């Protein structure tokens, strides 16, 4: 698999890029969100996902690994192909899609061109549990500069606790100037 391309941007359109790496030009399909995030720089790094089918080998490109991860989640759903997933990622950001799925917002997902009611419901059914446990749900309760709380959350997740339960437990026990160890010990009593 080709994980990323780091090279010279030769061509940029809203639907694809051509990136030259060591004299080879790679045709990469992209979402509209990726198109808007790629600046005018000549040298770029794009994260990729290679799709191999009987009739084609297609390289899809993403501005971030988070967008690539959402693409892989979407294509795992029956009825969602790579082109539909790119269309979904062109219509909404990864976080917006994740939020719509976790909150079971069928109407929002259905508002994407080519997504009907049954497909929207299938996407929610298949991905709701996966995305609720992942980093996509950006409703992080912690202040970004409080690394002790974030480190404690990471430790609890590594121990196998559910993200929402761990966040609630930390929120209940956190006090000013606590170490990571103190937060974890207190949170373990509450979880």
Structure in a nutshell:
With about 190 residues, this protein is of the alpha+beta class. About 50% of the residues lie in helices and about 20% in strands. Helix 2 (about 65-75) packs across helix 3, helix 4 crosses helix 6 and helix 7 crosses helix 8.
Verbal overview:
With about 190 residues, the chain is an alpha+beta fold. The chain contains nine helices and five strands. It has helices at about 30-35, 65-75, 80-90, 95-100, 105-110, 115-130, 145-160, 165-175, 180-190; strands spanning about 5-10, 15-20, 25-30, 45-50, 55-60. Helix 7 packs across helix 8 (about 165-175). The radius of gyration is 20 Å and the shape is globular. The termini are far apart.
Low-confidence stretches: 138-145
Shape annotation: globular
The biggest sheet amounts to: 5 strands, mixed, barrel
CATH class of the largest domain: Mainly Alpha
Q: Give the quaternary arrangement of the chains.
A: single chain
* Portion in strands: 15-25%
Radius of gyration: 20 Å
Secondary-structure-based class equals alpha+beta
What is the CATH superfamily label of the largest domain? 5' to 3' exonuclease, C-terminal subdomain
Which sequence of SSEs, written as H and E, runs from N to C? Answer: EEEHEEHHHHHHHH
